[in-house]
Amino acid sequence: MNVLEAIKSRRSSRSFENRQLPTEVITAIEEAIMHSPSGSNAQESHFVIVQDREQIKRMKRFAQGVSGQPAAFIVLCSNKEEALVRGGIDTLEELRFVNIGIVASFIILTAQSYGVGTCPVRSFHQSSIQQILHLPKAVAPELLITLGYSDQKPRPKSIKSTSEVISHDKFGEL
């Protein structure tokens, strides 16, 4: 599947088959993470891939935005200390969140290319997830991505018209 096909076909999955992810999928996601761009090349993020069923169960208690029984979580974390040292104040205050968004897209599209469903989740108790994962104080979980094989057909996507979203040369110009 090419990138544009992955983008067009991707929908959030909130209900999953009881099926583990193959090693090749996890390896591909690791590669996507490692090759994702990072503003100022700060590389201040850290990622925890959780596949252990008991750990997933513990995390779900504090992640009200998670539905179904995912096969895995990827926890996208920012490191405030590294952000400041490696990228300066701009990375600490703003760019680390942009970097998280970029790598989240890479993870989601890589999973989609393998037929694995995902759902990004921001609705969780940050300090509880930090404690469950034994994250250092400076490393904060910013986003969870659930992964698994969807057991339901996703609903059709509705999108605005191109003219409502995209302008050329100046706002409102087609």
From TrEMBL:
Residues 153-174 are annotated as: Disordered. It holds the Pfam family Nitroreductase. Residues 7-62, 94-149 form the Nitroreductase domain. Gene3D superfamilies: NADH Oxidase (3.40.109.10). Keywords: Oxidoreductase. GO terms for molecular function: oxidoreductase activity. InterPro entries: Nitroreductase, Nitroreductase-like. The keyword Transcription does not apply. It comes from the Bacteria. Transmembrane segments: none annotated. Belongs to the nitroreductase family. PANTHER family: NAD(P)H NITROREDUCTASE YDGI-RELATED (PTHR43673), NADH DEHYDROGENASE_NAD(P)H NITROREDUCTASE XCC3605-RELATED (PTHR43673:SF10). This is Nitroreductase. It comes from Anaerobacillus isosaccharinicus.
